[in-house]
Design goal:
The longest helix has 42 residues. The protein is built from 4 helices and 31 strands. By secondary structure, it is mostly beta strands. The protein starts with a helix and ends with a strand.
Length: 628
């Protein structure tokens, strides 16, 4: 077919003319109806709230949310109910109301969409159940709905937020959530008694905090949501909701109904057959670099639910359940030659009625390998006080391999650690009668247990400090043959550690706490000015001087029978110096020697000989001597 250039140019000319005409009409059309539409919208908005509502300018245009005709309000501010800080319920640089074009020719203007740009919304509830969004006129203050004249018809089926911020804080629940830089698009007929709302959500930064603990911090969230809203019972039903939290896919269903004095909750969240690495994207943001430099393999599952009534005045709380399952896990930080392999974890956490004392921890199985080392066992704790404990754990790990496999940047670990724990029984306390402090308790039952721990060739260093604690070793066993607390026996042998030229070594053994038959020896010699080289002191604290310990004790301690171990011990400080951030002045030239002696193991020959304590403060010398 021969191309007709003349016909083509003519077609383009007519098309351009038609497009230009349409644009002119779209530009001119709002001018004729601007005053009518703007007046009706202004009157309607002012009648809907009892607090301050202000905006800078109102315009009718096709071009702000092309091709929708919108009434656009700039710099919109709505003040919340009195008594809340901050007092802003909503601020937005632009709030636009989508208008049905044909409705401008009728008496009623039909609004079919709401568009908010750079909105900041604060939803707050106090301990009395009052809300800062309680700003709408009561029905008794207005004409009955069926008789009220209205120049606007709300037929909203589209809501959109762009680059906005949302904060919800409930001081009664001690709960808050924050969504920063979020975009939201929702569709549904909001005039129905039961609204089916389909939504897409994208949040760049999401944080969730409960009782002072931040559970999600600076997480990215994207979601496709299907929500049913019962406008009469104020119940929200979340159906077929698919979320992406950082890289973790999550399915979420549930229901939330607002009740007088609380809520009825039923939330279920799960992520099934998920990559273990995607699960780890939930870790705090500051550890994100660690994850980028770590090879992670394996699969896992994550489930959680919050179900029940939240009625604090009636002492009714929902139940919280969480399950974490990992299998065939693998972790290897960059530079590690020996990975953590065959990681298996099955953990259930239950908090009945959100009562921490009733917390149930069911670590049904945990195991992993690291070279020739391993972790294997289980730990179950039903309640905290009283608590039913059942455990069988065994650990044999090369700490240097563990340090490298996990990339534990703040610390440098070396040595071999062995640990075992077998425990079975109940931990129970009871209040002590006739005590001034009502919260004092005594232990009346403990689980029967055997605990052992051993470190060989240990080494520990804060990587930010120049020196390490080295030559660490000990052999520790703590046993209880029954449920009686006083029958616990402690045996610490071969305790050693060194830092630079500073050393400590010794042993400590107590057959049981009832008879307190002990055998202890401990020596230590430390230059206090060198502590800051291996231990992070508080900012502004300075220590100097020499501390020496030489403690020897053998025998039984019985307060009622006035029996005391045979003791020959000395504690001394020379040329001491202490300065803290709380004072510009230091305590200087500190020196003392304390001798504790008992040759026969009785109170009658027990001696505390404190040679003069001397120190200087603010240029003035002080001295104190005591003998007992």
């Amino acid at each position: 077919m021969k191309w007709n250039k003349s016909a083509a140019l003519k077609t383009l000319k007519y098309a351009g003319f038609a497009l230009g005409l349409i644009l002119v009409i779209m530009a001119v059309f709002p001018v004729f109806f601007k005053d009518k539409v703007n007046a009706k919208v202004k009157d309607y908005l002012q009648s809907q709230v009892t607090t301050e509502l202000s905006y800078n300018e109102i315009n009718l245009t096709f071009f702000r949310h092309f091709p929708t005709l919108t009434v656009s309000l700039d710099e919109v501010f709505i003040r919340g109910a009195a008594g809340f800080v901050p007092d802003t319920l909503m601020y937005a640089t632009d709030v636009s109301l989508g208008i049905n074009v044909l409705s401008v020719f009728s008496e009623k203007i039909e609004i079919k969409g709401i568009y908010l740009n750079q909105a900041k919304i604060n939803i707050l509830r106090d301990t009395q159940g009052h809300a800062n969004f309680d700003i709408f006129p009561a029905e008794t203050d207005t004409i009955p709905k069926e008789e009220a004249p209205s120049d606007l018809a709300l037929n909203i089926n589209n809501i959109k937020f762009t680059n906005s911020r949302f904060f919800y804080g409930d001081t009664d629940l001690d709960f808050s959530c924050l969504a920063e830089n979020f975009d939201y698009s929702g569709k549904g007929n909001l005039q129905d008694a039961i609204v089916d709302l389909s939504s897409d959500l994208n949040i760049q930064t999401f944080e969730l905090t409960y009782e002072g603990t931040t559970y999600l911090s600076k997480k990215r969230v994207s979601a496709s949501l299907q929500t049913k809203i019962n406008t009469e019972s104020t119940a929200l039903t979340f159906e077929r909701n698919h979320l992406m939290i950082n890289e973790l896919p999550v399915d979420f269903i549930g229901k939330l109904e607002f009740l007088s004095g609380g809520y009825d909750m039923n939330f279920i969240l799960e992520s099934v057959d998920t990559d273990f690495k995607d699960m780890l994207t939930l870790i705090p943001e500051e550890l994100g670099t660690w994850l980028d430099n770590t090879q992670v393999k394996g699969k896992g599952e994550l489930r959680g639910s919050l179900q029940g009534l939240y009625l604090p005045e009636e002492n009714q709380m929902p139940n919280l359940l969480m399950n974490l399952f990992v299998y065939n896990g693998y972790i290897s930080h960059s530079g590690s030659s020996t990975p953590i392999e065959k990681l298996y974890l099955d953990l259930d956490l239950t908090v009945p009625e959100l009562n921490v004392d009733k917390t149930i921890i069911a670590l049904d199985s945990v195991s992993m390998t690291l070279g020739e080392g391993f972790v294997q066992g289980h730990l179950n704790i039903d309640g905290l006080d009283p608590a039913l404990v059942n455990s069988d754990l065994a650990i044999n790990i090369d700490l240097n391999l563990l340090d490298k496999a996990l990339g534990i940047i703040p610390y440098d670990l070396r040595g071999t650690m062995e640990m075992t724990l077998q425990a079975n029984g109940s931990y129970i306390t009871r209040p002590l009668p006739n005590r001034f402090r009502g919260n004092e308790t005594e232990i009346i039952s403990i689980p029967k247990f055997k605990f052992s721990s051993a470190i060989q060739d240990g080494y520990f260093r804060w990587t930010a400090l120049p020196e390490a604690i080295h030559d660490i070793s000990w052999n520790l066993t703590v046993n209880s043959p029954d449920s009686i607390f006083q029958n616990i026996g402690i045996d610490l042998q071969n305790f050693n550690l060194g830092v630079l030229e500073n050393k400590a070594k010794g042993h400590f053994k107590v057959k049981d706490l009832r008879g307190m038959e002990m055998d202890a020896a401990m020596t230590a010699d430390f230059n206090l000015s060198e502590i800051e080289k291996f231990y992070p002191l508080d900012s502004g604290m300075t220590l100097k001087g020499n501390l020496a310990l030489n403690i020897n004790a053998k025998g039984s301690y019985d307060e009622e029978r006035k029996i005391f171990p045979v003791i020959n011990s000395q504690i001394s400080v020379r040329e001491g110096f202490i300065k803290t951030v709380y004072s510009d002045l230091a305590v200087e030239n500190i020196s003392f020697v304390l001798n504790i002696l008992s040759e026969r193991g009785s109170y009658t020959d027990l001696k505390f000989d404190l040679q003069p304590i001397a120190f200087t403060f603010a240029g003035h010398p002080f001295s104190l001597k005591a003998n007992l």
